[in-house]
Write a structure and sequence with these properties.
Blueprint: E1 5-7, H1 8-15, H2 19-27, E2 34-36, E3 39-43, H3 44-52
Antiparallel strand pairs: 1-3, 2-3
């Protein structure tokens, strides 16, 4: 398990999405993340779980 934190831009690149799409998914709670100072941040292990189809216990804020 890693505690690496990714930015919205990094998550969009990792998932091969437009940044706007990643932002919308995060805002809708489909990408589990959190905001710091108005900027979205994501835990790498949560994003990797998503890509493997595993359920996440983390709630979007």
């Amino acid at each position: 398990m890693t505690d690496e934190i990714l930015t919205l831009k990094e998550v969009a690149s990792y998932l091969k999405l437009a940044e706007k799409t990643a932002y919308r998914l995060a805002s809708d709670g489909q990408l589990k993340g959190f905001k710091i100072g108005g900027s979205w941040r994501f835990r790498r292990d949560e994003i990797e779980r998503l890509t493997k189809g595993e359920k996440s216990n983390m709630k979007a804020k």
